Amino acid sequence: MLKKIIPLLVILIAFSLKTEAQELSTKQIKNLIEAYKKDPRGPYNRIKWFCEDNTEREPKDPCPDSIGGGIQHASFKESALNLRKTNNLYFGEIIAAVKQNDFLNRDHKFSRLKQYQIGKYLASVDDGWVLQKAQYYRGAIQSEDEDTWGKDFFEWLLKDEQFIDANYYFLRQALKDVPHNGDDNIAQLMRSQSKTISEDLKSFMDIRIKIHGQPEVTDIKLVKDFMETKSIPEDLKKDFDALLATMYKFYAPIDFTRLEQELKTLPSTNITTKRIQDFIIANKNERTSASFISEIATILVEIRSNILSYKSSKDRLKLLDLSNQLEHTLLTETQNWQTTTPGESLDKISALSCAALGTGLIEDWEYNAIEETTNSKIANSELSINDLNQLLTTSRSVVEWSAAMVKANYQDIVDEYTAFEPLSYGFIDDRVRSSVALSLGETVSEFGAFVSKTSKINNNVMSIENQSAIRGLNPGYAFGELVVVDGNPDDVEVNSNNIYIFEKPPHDLKPVAGIMTVSEGNLVSHVQLLARNLGIPNAALSYDNLKAMKKYNGKTIFYAVSNKGSVIIKAEDDMSSTEKELFSKKERSKNIIAVPVDQIRLDVSKVLNMRDVDAKDSGKLCGPKAANLGELKQLFPEQVVEGIIIPFGIFRSHMNTQMPNQNKTYWEYLNATFTVANDMRANKTDEATVEEFQLKNLKKLHDAIINMPLENSFVEDMKANFKSAFGNTIGNVPVFLRSDTNMEDLKEFTGAGLNLTLFNIKDEDAIVKGIKRVWASAYTERSFKWRQKYLSNPENVFPSILIIPSVDVDYSGVMITKGINSGNDNDLTVAFSRGAGGAVDGQSAETRLISSKTDELLAPARQNDYIRLPDYGGTKKYTTTFESPILNDRNISDIRTLATEIRKKMVQHADTPNQAYDVEFGFKDDKLWLFQIRPFVENKQAKSSEYLSSISPKIEGNTLISLSEKL
Q1: pTM for the full model?
Q2: How many Å apart are CA 309 and CA 381, to the nearest integer?
Q3: Rounded to the nearest 10 degrees, how much is the dihedral formed by the CA atoms of 315, 320, 323, 328?
Q4: C-alpha triplet 361, 297, 220: angle, nearest 5°
Q5: N or C: which end of the chain has fewer CB within 10 A?
Q6: Adjacent-strand bridge partners of 741
Q7: For residue 526, what pLDDT is reported?
Q8: Helix axis angle, 712-726 relative to 648-655, nearest 10°?
């Protein structure tokens, strides 16, 4: 019997060890959370003493002073400890037991500290969350120990001047959540308490929405009146009492006497201390809301700008706590500043933008980029309609940059938590609503309504509120089902006939009928360029607009964006006869484009040196990427790398070989697929079934190409060209493999981003396999769907491949040689991100409008990670902060020079006068490297549409408007 038991025990132990080492699935984590919620001890095991000499003692056996004493708190269950090891998830954190560096978790983007913040938020909105019952487990967490540890933690952290400078927003947020002075995050508590009540008492929902969206001191009376006039269930009365107590605390006026006492503990000779003292004296007795808010904003910036002049980390901690306290006062006071004219609104926007800087929502250089022009306009008594629209654009930008700062800091960890706890998704919205961005957004919305009325740019988007936050980006019109995606879009399977509202679109978006996104995003990403090229209506809206549109999710709608940026969304039943006619078969057929194949050279089956091709070879020997880069190599020899090209003919010769298990060649299989599809259509088979058939066959073709054997003669030819072009043998030079098809950059169609580019591949075998992967990418679902929707002959797509050596650029991006939004052919629209592959995949990039004399910041970068290209191949990920711009003055000067040269030298290849170009390039040690040039293609039909012209307002831009006019 023992002989049988021992092997069984060995198996169980081995399984246990294996299980312990494995990462838990989302389902397992969900189950664990539910188990913790129901457990009186939650994730905790038992109470113990934890001594300074690393020993543990029973609850009634304290650590003696002779060994340095210790602290008492709960130990963790084995399941909670394993979750830390396998998934890096920390539930029910007890910070008094954690080493400071471990809690900061710097190497993992401060994940552990951020998880602590999300845990606090979840506890506030879900009755303790994993501590639902364990919050009553006496002695598990000792608040005094937590508070003492938090104070020590911040005094340790605030010695790091680089951290303060680079992470000011995150630092202030951490101070709101990590106990260190006995304070709580009152604003979050007030919102969560009202949310909890509204979930149990639906009639309270309107007040809850008010508290969340437009909090003001009169909300106290609203709650009290509700309690007096409504029948409150007995079990909710204590919740109402708790909410009122929190509201009284939240709206309590600033205690200037207490402030003065705290100020006495700071160095009196420091200029910032003196300015704060002057602020207290000036506002202690009489003050107006407008002046009070403006002065608080100024002090918030003063503290941020000069915090490092205080050399003691203890003083820095006091100063930051004061900053958070002043922000809280500003948020409560701002509701008292009622604006009645556009001039007053602009003054309020200016003050709150300053406060956004002071609280870390925007960076100093970002504020400086807009301050001078904004303040000079605000100082006038009247402004032109054009100036008002420019101020509105800038004001909206500050709101968007502020919200983007919150997302940049927390989106990654929120997405991770949302997978197993959907309530986590509210964390970012909660942070935005508890910041200056809420009041700023409201004021900008009111100002926007005035500007829209004055400009006659009026949106008509169902019946939602605050429509002035909506603005068109690409003109076009669409008809289809509305799908509202609030959250991570990566798991959404899009339908080409639907209209989508995304918080953020997936970077590999398949074709859609129309699109709206929260904030403008990256103007030159592949998704944006495709939308602009294909006449897909595209608009930006606020997150509140997105939430308001949720009630129309699943409805069939008409959606149009005019050439002037006004937006219409209406129900199908409300469409006019003119709008219905837009979607007739005759009208829609005008969008179809044919890929020209009459000049293609499939007889060329040798690898080419990029120096031997130029722009005239595009669509003949290779795609436009390679042909145009060959042209650039001749025009800018020092700024373009060497390259080799695998032409169309080599792909076609491989497609002429036998496809396994099909009794036909790859090419015959491809054409048979389209022939059968056409026969199905002729037999009235519905398009969805035809598409399903095509996609199934193309998937089979895609997989077969990836496993296709390459001809030995081609491989040897490639190796020889590799060595002659790059000066070293294959396997010793990291390279890019760039798909380059004959469907890209037609006069009416751009294939931007549809096929595969492989980054920084060095290994010979990986390069060989990569060639087949790039060929096969022309037959992916996404690539096919975009082609199928807009090309009449999608079967005639031929991929070539451009191979160029990697350049480990410091930052990279895209330039369009015209103002995309301004429409000015002499302007430049430039978007840059750190590292390689910048801007093209929809990263939150630094975007600028550059003219011959000016440089306007349209958006700062808010992408907190990027990739570099190490010389051993592959990519390496890095993280970044935003305290300095990406592009410097020298870069911008070089960009102007490059654009001038491109316009001058590429004119002989242009199809139209003033042809704009889409240029990809980067900087390495301030040297500019060119990687790609293609024509910038816009949708002529959308721009010339009679219907879109008819809904475009006629704007008298030079008309002067008094700033004292009533809103």
Answers
A1: 0.85
A2: 39
A3: -130
A4: 90
A5: N
A6: 799
A7: 57
A8: 160
